[in-house]
Amino acid sequence: MMYAMHKPRYAALLFAVFCSLAGLAPAAHAYLDPSTGSMILSAIVGLFATIGLAVKTYWYKLKNLIMRRPPARPPGPAGEPAPPAGQQSGQQSGQPSRLS
């Protein structure tokens, strides 16, 4: 059984390892100006926006795949519900056609 690392001796050991590794890091002779930081931040925001849009776009397809339901039929002209398969709007249902 695994134990959580919230015991004080593990925390002290982890802190000591972190401090020793941070002290041994070589100097990086580089300069990141503010515009570079803004560019990195905007790339991260753009990545999250792209992921969000992809999830939104495919959400209903994924949901229908999981629920194993057929996708909803697109509405007919002027926002009316689509007629049942094999029927055209206004025919065979006793309603007059709106096109005439």
Defining traits:
single chain, 100 residues, mainly alpha, 2 helices
Give the structure's gist in a few sentences.
This protein is mainly alpha-helical and 100 residues long. The chain has helices at residues 8-23, 34-67.
Structural class label: mainly alpha
**What is the element string, with H for helices and E for strands?**
HH
Total helical segments: 2
Compute the separation of the termini in Å.
77 Å
What level of helicity do the residues show?
40-55%
Would you identify the regions where 5 or more consecutive residues have pLDDT less than 50?
A: none
Shape: elongated
Largest sheet: none
Question: Cα-atom Rg, whole angstroms?
Answer: 30 Å
Beta-strand residue fraction = under 5%
What layout of secondary structure does this protein have?
Layout: H1 8-23, H2 34-67
